[in-house]
Amino acid sequence: MESKAKLLGHPVHPMLIVFPLGLLATSVIFDMIGLAGDIRSLSMASFWMIAAGLVSAILSAIFGLVDWLAIPDRTRAKQMGFWHGSGNGLVIVLFAISWILRRPSPEHPSIIALLLEVAGALIAPVTAWLGGELVDRLGMGVDDGAHLNAPNSLSGRPARGAEVRDDVKRAA
What we know:
Layout: E1 6-7, E2 10-11, H1 12-16, H2 18-37, H3 40-70, H4 76-102, H5 111-137, H6 162-171
Antiparallel strand pairs: 1-2
Helix pairs in contact: 2-3, 2-5, 3-4, 4-5
């Protein structure tokens, strides 16, 4: 099923998810290194990575919601998308609470703030896997008729249907 929110012929949501995933995961790594080495500048950097990760996560979630609303009801994709989005919402809440708790002294995060970060970081790979399941197994966000020799998305030509896929299979 094709994505409803596209930029230059590609789904927007998968383009954006790299930012919150990278920023939030790196914030945890920086905090752990900062704690182990008593490097306050890493904890401060982590504080701002969480802020940027949250903003990019919310933006990504908006485009994910647009795509999810277009999935037909009573399908495995709709259910999987619900758990993917809900889990990511929980990740956002956990990191947001952590960030709020850190605001008075970003370079000295409390144990609770760190535990919330770690909890969010442990949930994120599960929700990322669910997103991968949506794309790789259920075809969410994949152009109808996509195949190995489809034209460039900027060409203005649609990917052709199953007859081309059959030609590709025969060639292999």
